[in-house]
Amino acid sequence: MSSRINTILILGAAGGIGEVTARRFHSMGKKVIVTGREQNKERLEHVAKELEGLEYRIALNNIVRDFPQLDTVFVNAGIQHHYDIFQNPPPNLAQQAIQELTTNLMAPILVAQAFASHLLSLARQGIKTNIFLTSSSLAYFPVPFYPTYCPSKAGVASFCKILRWQLEATGVKGMNVIEVAPPYVDTPLNVHHRVHTDALQGGPEKAVQPMTLEEYIDSFFEILEDRKEDGSIRDEIGVGFGGQGQKVWKQGYENLLRGSGMTN
Question: What is the pLDDT of residue 191?
C-alpha cells in the first residue's frame, strides 16, 4: 500500500472512524491532513499536536496549493438522525433532513468534483491516486429508524459506481475510486438515540450490537492490503454487513446485465 498512498486528506476526522483511520495512516508514516467542522476545531488541534507532522484544516480552500502531491482523498464525514415521519415527527424535520442529505450525500459529491481533476492529472503523470467515499451497510440494508440516513448512504454507494464508470471512460489506469461500507460500529454517530433504537428492537438484549472500533479498523486495513491482480486497491472495502451488501448488489446487478445482453 505504501506505493499507492503517500499523502492523504481525511474529511470527518475529529472523532470516530475518521480519527482512528487518520491515526493508523499516520502510524504507517503517511502524510496526513485532517478536516472537520468548525465546532470540532479544538479536537482537530489536539490530534495535530499529539501526532507530529499531521496537519488539520477547517476548510478545503488551498489544499491542493499547500499539498500539490496529495494523492488520496478519504471522505468520511457523516451525521445520523433518528425520527418517525408518521408518529411524533420532530418539529424541525425538514431542517434535519436537509442537513443530513447535505452532509452525507451532497458534500461527498462536491468534494469528489473538487479533487477529481487534480487526482486525474497526477494519475496521468504516473502517480497512483485514490478517492475513498464512505457509504454504509445501511446503503444496502435500510432500516426504519433512519429514513434520511439510509437513502443518503445509498446515494453515496450509487455515486461511487458512477464515478468509477466515468473514470474508466477516461482510459486513465492509475486512479482508483473506492467505496467504503462500514457495518454498525461503536462510535458517537448514534450516541444520542442508541437507547431509543435499541428499545425499538426489543431492548439491548435483542438489538443488533455494534462492532468495536478497533475490530473495524483492523478489518478495514486488512482488506485494504488485499489488492487486485494489478496491485491496485479493490473497488469496494466492506466490513461485515457492509461487505455482504456490496457483494449481493454486485452479483444481482451483473446477473441483470447479462440477462439484458449488455455484457457477457
Answer: 87
